[in-house]
Amino acid sequence: MRKKQHNNDIDELVATARQARSMAYAPYSGFKVGAALQTKEGRIFSGCNVENTTYGLSICAERVVITKAVS
């Protein structure tokens, strides 16, 4: 069963994602993205998008944050 999130938890995730967005590298699209996730244990991870001149090598913020959480 999923635990209901409190507004403070959501506010913290939004603030963390916004902070991560400030670290994004998006010189080609100019579209900076930040993402945050919280584990069942309460740990928070964040990530941002990173663009590359070879578009296929760009990585989205969601993949970054999941990779950080798993590793």
Summary, kept brief:
The chain has 71 residues and is an alpha+beta fold. The chain is built from two helices and two strands, in the order H-E-E-H. The longest helix is centred in the first third of the chain and has 15 residues, at 7-21.
Fold and architecture overview:
A hairpin with a 5-residue loop joins β1 and β2. It contains 2 helices and 2 strands. It has a single domain (7-70), classed as Cytidine Deaminase, domain 2 (3-Layer(aba) Sandwich). A two-stranded antiparallel sheet has the order 1-2. The mean pLDDT is 94. It starts with 6 loop residues before the first helix and ends with a helix. The radius of gyration is 13 Å and the shape is elongated. With 71 residues, the chain is of the alpha+beta class.
Across the major sheet, the strand order is: 1-2
User: Secondary-structure element order, as H and E?
Assistant: HEEH
The second-level CATH architecture is 3-Layer(aba) Sandwich
CATH superfamily label: Cytidine Deaminase, domain 2
- CATH class annotation: Alpha Beta
Mean pLDDT: 94
Anisotropy-based shape? elongated
Radius of gyration equals 13 Å
Number of helices: 2
* Helical proportion, percent range: 25-40%
Oligomer: single chain
**Contiguous uncertain segments of 5+ residues:** none
Structural class by secondary-structure content: alpha+beta
Strand runs, count:
2
Strand content: 5-15%
- The CATH topology annotation reads as Cytidine Deaminase, domain 2
